Amino acid sequence: MTIGPDIDPLALALAPPPGETPQDRETRLQQEREAKKRSDLIDQELARQRTTEKKGPKPVKILLLGQSESGKSTTLKNFQLINSPKAFKAERASWRAVVHLNVVRSMRLILNALQEAEAYASLPEPPNADDPVYPALTPDLLTLKMRLSPLQQVEEALLGMLTPGAKLSKAYTALPDDPLPGAPQEVSVHSATPWKGAFNRLMNNVRSSVDGPEVNEPQDSREARQLLHACSEDMIRLWVDPTVKEVLRVHRLRLEDMAGFFLDSIERVTDLSYEPSDDDILKARLKTLGVSEHHFNLKAGNIVPQSWIVYDVGGGRQQRAAWWVSLSFGSLLDLPFAACDSVPYFDDMDAMIFLAPLSCFDQVLAEDETVNRLEDSILLWKTIVSSPLLKNTSLILFLNKCDILKAKLESGQKFCEYVVSYGDRPNDFENCSQYMKKKFTMIAKQFSPEPRGFYTYFTSVTDVQSTADILGSVRDMLVRQNLTRSRLV
Length: 489
Ligand SMILES: Nc1nc2c(ncn2[C@@H]2O[C@H](COP(=O)(O)OP(=O)(O)OP(=O)(O)O)[C@@H](O)[C@H]2O)c(=O)[nH]1
Ligand SMILES: [Mg+2]
Fold this sequence. Notes:
By secondary structure, this protein is α/β, with parallel strands linked by helices. It folds into 2 domains: about 230 residues, Rossmann fold; about 190 residues, no CATH class. It has 17 helices and 9 strands. The strands form 2 sheets. A 6-stranded mixed beta sheet has the order 5-6-1-7-8-9, sandwiched between helices. Strands 2-3-4 form a 3-stranded mixed beta sheet, covered by helices on one side. Strand 5 and strand 6 form a beta hairpin. Helix 3 crosses helix 17 and helix 14 packs parallel to helix 16. The radius of gyration is 30 Å and the shape is elongated. About 10% of the residues have low confidence. Bound molecules: guanosine-5'-triphosphate and magnesium ion (MG). The site of magnesium ion (MG) has 4 residues, from helix 3. This is Guanine nucleotide binding protein, alpha subunit. One of its GO terms (cellular component) is heterotrimeric G-protein complex.
């Protein structure tokens, strides 16, 4: 057959074969229907791939876990410092307010201890044998105490500016052995409250000038800083006073071991031109409530930037109750306090960084003074590694606060008095830290439902450089892990 100009080749190709029987026709139509179905499926798959490519590859998800004050938010700050330095810098004004709140809280703890010493002194009867014996307060100290009363006003003003959602956590009152009603509490902020944004917006119109660092600063903020600056000398006098040191010793309050300690830098941090350094920001303490997610674009070597999401949670006892719900039911977002705008699931995490502060071997929980902090960390670790929901999540263990552990051991604090199983091994950092590493590793091996990636680091996450190195190797390891997983898929 020849094809002439009046013959459509397509119609010819689609035409039924000559001499087709009804049965042949049915078979042919059936085959055509199946071919169409296959073609539609391929089209759908291509469309899905195009959408996924537009959205970019699946982000790497990391969950930060650990008890309160273990260093989760400080680790997050390191992520921000490395990966979003501009945003980190832009938030300095907010962190300055937190540093100031930390100073005020330390001061109020001292004033509270002085109050107790005064109350004991005024008792008509001599105290019982096991009552604390406080030194007599000098008239000079009583005057200082009175002169520092405006600090409460500073605290209220700073809190009010940071966010109406910020509140004084009840947790602090449980710290001293016998807390007085009205003891200064720890400042916390709910992760649902965009506190840094709110404060920065307040400061938005602030511009630098030769007259002062921030001429358009809101009046409340300026007044709070001026008041704190005016109290600076009195605060220093109070902090270095030998009677105060003795009162604190009797009160068993070591402020220098507490989170957010800035009393050795009062003059610097209350200066009117003070800008917090990176180290100050890492040291500043703000208790986390709820869950928050933070997005980063990370670049490793020649690999295209990868999107990472880091989840920070509150580690207090009450906050943890919610983790258990998540470990049982999956979603963090179902929790009443969650602040995430997408739905994060524990079982969808690529890795979990668990922070166990080794230095807390001689401390008890703020929420329950019958519980040793290190023991609490070990139990928490056991529960988390046993969770079936996290069985595919790589475990990254940060044995944290190594700087404080070293200092404590060097000052003669005995590890074996608190960790009895440590026995008569040497009381030095090398041996104590390796002992704890073995303990945590054994639990991970024994209680993990399935074999999984497990990496341990000795950390001091307030140290910017060493933490940057560690987070760099965590990043490389997760990039490799993801590549291996995608090849396997
Ligand atoms: N010296 C020292 N201080 C640390 C270290 N890690 C954290 N800190 C300090 O410990 C305090 C508590 O750290 P955070 O990161 O706020 O603790 P968190 O785990 O987020 O606590 P919650 O929000 O209550 O769950 C902060 O003042 C930190 O500066 C460390 O390795 N060394
Ligand atoms: Mg936190």
